[in-house]
Amino acid sequence: MPSTLPAERSKRTAAHRAHLVPDRAYSLLVVLLAAATVVSAAVAIAVGTVPVPLGDVVAVTWAHLTPGDTERSLLYDQIVWDFRTPRVLLAGVSGAGLSIAGVCLQALVRNPLADPYLLGISSGASVGAVLALTFASAVTAGLGVTGAAFAGALMSVVLVVGLAQRAGQVAPGRLILAGVAVGYLGSAVTSYIQLQANPTELRGIMFWLLGSVSGASWSDLPAPAVALLCCMLWLLVDGRRLNALTMGETSAAGLGIDVNRLRLGLLAAASLLTATIVSVAGGIGFVGLLVPHAVRLLVGPDHRRVVPVSLLVGAIFLILVDLLSRTLDRPNEMPIGIFTAALGAPFFLWLLRSRSGAVR
Amino acid sequence: MKVSAAGVSVSIDGTPILDGVTLTAAAGSVTGLIGPNGSGKSTLLRCLYRIIRPQQGAVLIGEHDVWQVPARRAGLLRAVVAQDQELDNDYTVRDIVAMGRIPHQRLLERESATDRAVVDEALARVGIEWAQTRRFATLSGGERQRVLLARALAQGAPVLLLDEPTNHLDIGAQLELLDLIRDLGLTTIAALHDLDHAIAYCDAVVLLQHGRVVAAGEPAAVLTPQHLADVFGVRAAVTTHPLTGRPHLVFAAAAAVLLAEEHAS
């Protein structure tokens, strides 16, 4: 280390690296978070209207993952494997995916308020889902709620990117404006259909709009899981370029990065993640906004760390929030989106206050 | 490595910004791009940054067309000190300088001993090593420009491109930075606002107006009272700097000169 003044060396003020987990403890953090993900998933599978002992959760899961026939309780098997495991996995994959999508979009538009719904994706998905859930289901022609939502999400992405690009170049500022405009357009359509819907349909619509993983089945999982896997692998490999992009377009271009291609890649990753998740789990808000900020507070701004940690923290967060949403008011279930916002908003305000004190 | 532009034309939304710009910057020289606001200085640099693709002509570094080589290869040919200083992040000085190694690193490759040595050397070269654990956002404007210069050095490219590097700096920081840039001995192209800096620090200047090259060559040959009157609409005189003995430009608004002449007569 080149010489530093003793006074400089001893004090670690806000002028220095300020994140909570020191660099040397990063590997330990990842191991702990990975363990916490597994434990919280197991607990979430065990807890419910019919409690299942943790030992049986492990036994059932083990039996399904290994070939050969073992003795087990049919009731537990059905509860664990058919109902709770897909639900908990979907919560985990959604939390992880929305967090990663948030990381992508915050790097892309360099705006701390960016979240996965910035691009009007959830609004488009809502239009599709609401059409499928109501009298208007003829419009969606047998796509089902998930299929209709996915189609709506894709249409809104295409519309937003089409409006935001000029000669193949995507400008972040225009992207935000186009996303907001398409978002409002989608809301208008959704509101109109809601007004025409009957009360039974309305409850289904409300539940869908606020996000829920309650109806999860194994068939809901492959699309978001594959999207998550692909995006995660790419981001882990390309984390350094994301770092450069957050320093500005010119800086990144100067460092030998094809800025437009990187932006299109981030856009595609965020859209794919959000569309696949929203179409099965509805509009779960705040996760994609909150988790990346919290993670940066923990491990600093380097995307090579932010991406894996966001993935784990997002998964744990949504698994636990889902657990909360189905245990607080048993046997009733509440939409998961209510809790993500109720927990997220105060945390976010605290974050905002503490940051503004330290930095500016 | 020399830098050249051959018949570069760019128009944005139908408005021509650059109109057949041809120029050459000799290897190892410091070339100043000067001209009024909107003359095309920044656009020409942005062609070299690989942000704006010329509709006609080409920008070359050595024999390499910047837009024909892969983006990463371009990162090995030229480094950029841009005007955008993003402050809304928690990167430390060292984090930022280490980004200069991106074009040298393969995907997933970790920072090597060479990378670390190069970063150390770059930090020392610009005299900012004392701040390496400081957060970039907490430095002064002059210190931040030094950090970005260190990042450019860590890139190890033979060509350095700067867009108004002294913008928003106090006079002391301005002159220190320019001295430092000159001492690096790289082929340097800098868009400069201050004409006096151009005459004092550049080996050659290129004067742009309305996207065309008006004059190019040695500073004293380009920065003549006639050119300055034609392009900037000011009256200028070249004197000798009383402290350094270098050429020094003084300016007055054309109207003020007329008034003074009226008084004298």
From TrEMBL, chain A:
Example GO BP: siderophore-iron import into cell
Pfam family, one: FecCD
Subcellular location(s) per record: Cell membrane
Signal peptide: none
Source organism, top-level taxon: Bacteria
Primary location group: membrane
Transmembrane regions: 26-47, 88-109, 116-136, 142-163, 175-195, 215-237, 264-286, 306-324, 336-352
Family classification: Belongs to the binding-protein-dependent transport system permease family. FecCD subfamily.
Protein name according to UniProt: ABC transporter permease
Organism: Dactylosporangium siamense
Lineage, broadest ranks: Bacteria, Bacillati, Actinomycetota, Actinomycetes, Micromonosporales
UniProtKB/TrEMBL annotation, chain B:
PROSITE patterns for the chain: ABC_TRANSPORTER_1 (PS00211), ABC_TRANSPORTER_2 (PS50893)
InterPro entries reported in the protein's UniProt record: AAA+_ATPase (IPR003593), ABC_transporter-like_ATP-bd (IPR003439), ABC_transporter-like_CS (IPR017871), P-loop_NTPase (IPR027417)
GO molecular function: ATP binding; ATP hydrolysis activity
Keyword Nucleotide-binding: yes
Pfam families the UniProt entry points to: ABC_tran
Recorded superkingdom: Bacteria
SUPFAM superfamilies recorded: P-loop containing nucleoside triphosphate hydrolases (SSF52540)
UniProt keyword terms in alphabetical order: ATP-binding, Nucleotide-binding, Transport
Signal peptide residue numbers: none
Record carries keyword Transport: yes
Residue intervals of the ABC transporter domain: 3-235
Protein name per its UniProtKB record: ABC transporter ATP-binding protein
Species the sequence originates in: Dactylosporangium siamense
